[in-house]
Amino acid sequence: MTTLDRKNAFIVLNGLPNIGPITLRRLLDAFHGDPVSIFDAPASQLKAVQGVGEAVVNTLRNWADLLDLDKQLHRMEKSGIRFVVTESDDYPPLLKEIYDPPIGLYWRGKYVLDRPTVAIVGSRRTTVYGRQVARKLGRELARCGFCVVSGGARGIDTEAHKGALEVEGKTIAIMGCGMDIVYPAENFELFNQVAETGAVVSEFPFGRRADRQTFPMRNRIVSGMCQGLIVVESDINGGSMISARFAAEQGRTVFAVPGRIDQATSRGCHQLIREGASLLAKPEDVVEELGYLLINRESDEQLDTPAGPANLTEDEQEVLGHFSGGEVLDMDRLFDLTGKSSPELASVLMMLELKHLVIKRFDGTFEARVQF
C-alpha cells in the first residue's frame, strides 16, 4: 500500500465520505496543517475539534477500507490530474479567502492562474439571445485578458467556455462531479479543449456523481475564485442565483444581463438588478468595473514600483505612446488620437492596466504609471 505521506494524506482526507470542507478545515487548523498527524491522533484529540464525532473518527480510522488510494493515484497519473492543496502557489489565490475553501482541487491542465478571473454562469435552458450573449462575453473578456470561469454545464456555461476558446483565451471549467465522470456527456470534447490551454477542476474525488449537494458546492468555487460573476440567464430559482448569492457573500462584484420581460429565464437577472447587481449591457462594463477594482487591490508599494520591460503589441505601444510626458487622457481624447473603436480601445487599455503601465483615475481618465 502506498505510504500515507503529506501529499497522499491530503488526497485521502478530501476523498473520504461524510466529512465536509468546513470540518476538514477545522481538523487541519487544529493539527497545524499537518494531514498525516490527523490519522495518527487519538480519538479524544480528534473529538476535541468542533464537528468531529464518533462517525468522523471511525471514517478516519478506517480510511483504507473506504478509499483505494493506489487506484486513485494511478488514475490521476494516467489522466494527467494533480491535486493542488490550499498551501500551494498554484491554488487560486482568491479561493483561499472564502469561508469554506476546498482543502485541495483535482486539476487537469498545465495552466496556472496568471490573470484576473471572471465567472459567466446561467441557465441550462437557454434562449438564442442568452447563448449569443454568453459566447460574446466569453470571447471579448478572454480577449481583454481575463480568464473565463464557468461550471461546464450545458447552456450558458458551455457558450462562455466556447467563446473564450474561440480567441485562444484562458478558461477554467469547474465540475460538479468527480473528474472521471463527464457531465454533461455531450461536453466531452469541450472539456478536452479546455484542459489543453486552461484547466478542468473539481474538488470531488473519483466516482462522485453530480447531485443536489455537489452543484451548490461547485458554485461556491466558481464565484470564489473570481473577481466578478456574470449571470446571463436564470429563473428566480435557478442554480445561478445560488452562485450570485455566494458571490455577494464573498465580496465579489455581481453583474446581471437584462432580458425580455416575458421570458422566465430573465426573471432571475432582473431580480438581481433590483437587489443591486450591476446591469451589464456590454463587455466594456465588466472591463471598466473590474479593471478599476483590480488596480486598486494592488498595494502602495506595488503601485509605486516602476514597471519592468513588457511585451507590448503594436496597438499597446501606440496607445501607450500617447501618454508620454505625463499626459492624462479620457476615452474621448483617446478615440480621437487612435481612431480605434470603443471595444478595441477598452481592450488595449485593460491590457496596459494589467501590465501595470497605465492606471485609471477616480475621474475616469487614464495616465501612465511611469514616465517615458
Task: Walk me through the structure.
The protein is of the alpha/beta class and 372 residues long. It has 3 domains: 73 residues, 5' to 3' exonuclease, C-terminal subdomain (DNA polymerase, domain 1, Orthogonal Bundle); 181 residues, Rossmann fold, CATH 3.40.50; 69 residues, Winged helix-like DNA-binding domain superfamily/Winged helix DNA-binding domain (Arc Repressor Mutant, subunit A, Orthogonal Bundle), CATH 1.10.10.10. 47% of the residues lie in helices and 12% in strands. It contains 18 helices and 12 strands. Strands 1-2-6-5-4-3-7-8-9 form a 9-stranded mixed beta sheet, with helices on both faces. It is globular.
At a glance:
With 372 residues, the chain is an alpha/beta fold. The chain has helices at 6-15, 21-30, 35-40, 43-47, 54-61, 63-66, 69-79, 128-143, 156-166, 188-197, 214-224, 239-249, 264-274, 283-297, 300-304, 314-321, 331-338, 342-354; strands spanning 81-85, 104-108, 117-121, 147-150, 171-174, 199-202, 228-231, 253-256, 278-279, 328-329, 358-360, 366-368.
Shape: globular
Backbone CA Rg = 22 Å
Q: Tally the helices: what do you get?
A: 18
Order of helices and strands: HHHHHHHEEEHEHEHEHEHEHEHHHEHHEE
What structural class results from the helix and strand content?
Answer: alpha/beta
How many domain modules?
3
- The CATH architecture term of the largest domain is 3-Layer(aba) Sandwich
Low-confidence stretches: 295-310
Range of strand content: 5-15%
- For the residues shown, what is the average pLDDT? 88
> What strand line-up does the widest sheet have?
1-2-6-5-4-3-7-8-9
